[in-house]
Amino acid sequence: MAEKDQEFLEFVVKGLVENPDAVKINRAVDEMGVLLTLDLHPDDMGKVIGRSGNTAKAIRTLLRVVGMKHNARVNLKINEPLGGMRSPEAGGGSENTGWDGSHEAPATPAMKSVDEAMDDLKL
């Protein structure tokens, strides 16, 4: 395949991002096929992922087409950069949950009896 898949991915991603110098692509081949691992600047994650992940899905589809042309299965993994929105360093939650609980609904007040509610209404 002569790394045409890696060249293609580099061309597409560098055309999308604001920091093309920060784009790093690692290519690994094993019995499952080719795995391309993408590292990029934290500010560019949204551009590569796209709304609802549609841009990343499209890139993966195109990579599969390039792979089929060369009889290889190509997969793409996008690494979460340090300082990204989901990393703990950026306040994006704990390592285990990915959520810090700050969006929890406030505790509901305890239920009052009918008598207590009536007493509250008396002036």
Blueprint (SSEs and pairs):
Layout: H1 4-16, E1 24-30, E2 33-39, H2 45-49, H3 54-69, E3 74-78, H4 114-121
Helix pairs in contact: 1-3
Please provide a written account of the structure.
By secondary structure, the protein is α+β, with helices and mostly antiparallel strands. It has a domain of 77 residues: K homology (KH) domain (GMP Synthetase, Chain A, domain 3, 2-Layer Sandwich). Strands 1-2-3 form a 3-stranded mixed β-sheet. Strand 1 and strand 2 form a beta hairpin. The longest helix is centred in the middle third of the chain and has 16 residues. The radius of gyration is 24 Å and the shape is elongated. About 11% of the residues have low confidence.
List keywords for this structure.
123 residues, GMP Synthetase, Chain A, domain 3, alpha+beta
Distance between the terminal alpha carbons, to the nearest Å?
84 Å
- The top-level CATH class of the domain at 4-80 is Alpha Beta
Total number of β-strand segments?
A: 3
What is the string of SSEs from the N terminus onward? HEEHHEH
- How would a textbook summarize the main sheet? 3 strands, mixed
Overall shape? elongated
- Which strand-content bin applies to the residues? 15-25%
Radius of gyration: 24 Å
CATH topology of the domain at 4-80, which one? GMP Synthetase, Chain A, domain 3
Low-confidence stretches: 91-104
| Total of helices | 4
Q: Residue-averaged pLDDT, rounded?
A: 79
The class by helix and strand makeup works out as alpha+beta
Report strand order across the widest sheet: 1-2-3
CATH architecture of the domain at 4-80: 2-Layer Sandwich
The H-level CATH homologous superfamily of the domain at 4-80, spelled out, is K homology (KH) domain
Helix content: 25-40%
